[in-house]
Amino acid sequence: MLILPYIKSVHVSGSTWSPTLFQTHLLVAFLRTLPNLAGLQINRSANLQLHNLIHALGAAPLPTVTALWVPHWSHEIFPAFPNVTTLACPTIFPTRPQLAPAKLHFPHLQALVGVRFTEDNSDAQVTALIRDFPHLRVLALATALLVSCRGVLTHLRALASLNALSFFQSSRPTSAHNPYLALDVVITGGREVLRASRAPGPKILRVWEEGAEGAGPRLAHFERC
User: Distances from the Cα of 113 to the Cαs of 1, 29, 91, 92, 218, in angstroms?
Assistant: First the structure.
């Protein structure tokens, strides 16, 4: 019995293999043989040349994929995934040049993972995010909020469909005049964001924080709102 119909997610990893254009086409061709492929994760260490991947996916899109993880903002490959509802990337800065391709190619987007707000323009960034994706159900931030970004917590209450929200806390030193928001402030603010949502059912709030050196982040807070 073929195993291919049972494969629903593929993780492309490895740092020692640098596929040629032909090999990249073979990889994409293999992915297209998976009729139930719903998740695709491309690891940061994968030595896939972006131009090769763009070329291969342009010739053979993957319409079954609904969850896409990319190591950097590679909007050139977005047209190959017309049915994505979850987009994860560690460098999602919600500015117009970045949001526009996602809005164009992912009309059904419900989850964004890896959002970063910068110190100098967080209000404009969160406003753009809400404007372009007002129906988000899941939002995960990849960086800690500074005191100067506290307004983000107020703006996020406009996401009326939100049912899962994740924050990230950092223990790294910052300038004395603009430290990170305290954990209790983030928890209270996140709770208020989810309580303002009109989505049915329980809402999930998570706060992650940096783990020990060499370890991944650990869950510092979890609650159902």
Answer: 36, 27, 9, 8, 16
Domain extent, residue 116, equals 90-225
- Overall pTM > 0.85: yes
| Distance (Å, whole) CA 146 – CA 144 | 6
- Using alpha carbons, list the distances in angstroms from residue 75 to 32, 68, 145, 182, 189: 20, 12, 26, 34, 32
Quick check: 180 and 152 in contact, CB under 8 A?
no
Which of 54, 84, 114 finishes a domain? Answer: 84
Reported as a single tens digit per residue, the pLDDT across 82-115 is 999 999 998 888 876 778 888 999 999 999 999 9
Encoded tokens for 153: 């917590």
Assess whether 184 and 130 both reside in one domain.
Answer: yes
Q: CA of 186: how far to CAs of 62, 90, 208, in Å?
A: 38, 20, 11
Q: Are residues 218 and 141 located together in one domain of the fold? A: yes
